[in-house]
Design a protein that fits this description.
flat, 2 domains, Four Helix Bundle (Hemerythrin (Met), subunit A), mainly alpha, 269 residues
Length: 269
């Protein structure tokens, strides 16, 4: 059961989001003790989102014959996953109060955006909003836990939001047709493969531009150049061969480069 529970948690995205939050906090000069606590709180919130995603979609996954889903194949019970999701949610929200009201409110918004996506938004045109909001607020979480609390600069917020939107669009590409069959019609499904890829690259280039404007150092400009080159190559490939797996990996690589640029900019700002 424990293995199935871990597999339903979407550990990969949980760890990536937590790591990004902590790394931006390190770059911003937040102390280690605070970052350790913030990391635990963020991880608990993300685990609640991951667990709720699979348990909410359990019936749909069974109908679609998703043998890769632990709940759908009976490896773990829906009740057990609900218990894990709600317990981690309550723990993350209560522990967030340790870092003050500003942190608790903003962290609560990021978690609420993730739950809203799972409950409803993933099947609507507004599916991308959940990622824009939750990722956009990530750079502010660590700094809001300090005294005095402060929000991240606008450029960092825009860059993080663009990463969230592009990740959402790219993550859907491999399962686009299967999702439509079971009634999921979010923003990527409405845009289609080519439209989703184009918007992903455009968002990442816009995020890199925002960082370069915010902090016009040589490193920021170099990051802008690299993201732009990958974005242009990806756009050309998406227009010619929208089903190419390379399009997905180019989005991932460009998003990773933008994340590195975000951390570097936070460190030298």
């Amino acid at each position: 059961m424990l293995t199935g529970l871990l597999r339903t948690a979407h550990l990969g995205p949980c760890l990536v989001i937590t790591a990004l939050t902590v790394l931006v906090g390190i770059a911003a000069g937040v102390d280690v003790a605070t970052l350790a606590g913030v990391g635990i709180v963020v991880m608990l919130g993300q685990l609640s989102i991951g667990w709720s995603n699979d348990v909410i979609d359990a019936e749909r996954d069974r109908a679609a014959g998703r043998t890769d889903k632990p709940i759908a194949r009976g490896e773990v019970s829906a009740r057990g996953v609900w218990t894990a999701a709600l317990t981690s949610l309550a723990a993350s929200l209560l522990l967030s109060l340790v870092f003050g009201w500003w942190f608790a409110i903003v962290h609560g918004i990021t978690v609420a955006a993730g739950w809203a996506y799972n409950v409803r938004l993933k099947r609507t045109w507004a599916s991308g909003l959940a990622f824009i909001v939750s990722f956009g607020l990530l750079p502010s979480l660590a700094t809001l836990a300090t005294s005095p609390p402060r929000f991240a600069p606008l450029g960092e917020t825009i860059a993080a939001a663009s990463i969230g939107l592009s990740v959402h669009l790219a993550n859907t590409l491999p399962d686009l047709e299967d999702d439509v069959k079971v009634g999921v019609k979010g923003l990527p499904h409405l845009l289609g493969r080519r439209g989703s890829a184009i918007l992903s690259f455009a968002a990442l280039i816009a995020g890199a531009v925002a960082l370069a404007i915010h902090q016009g150092s040589a490193l920021a400009l170099a990051g802008l150049g690299l993201v732009t080159v990958l974005g242009v190559v990806g756009l050309v490939l998406a227009l010619r061969r929208s089903r190419s797996r390379a399009v997905f990996w180019l989005v991932v690589l460009a998003a990773l480069l933008l994340a590195v640029q975000l951390i570097v900019v936070a460190a030298i700002a």
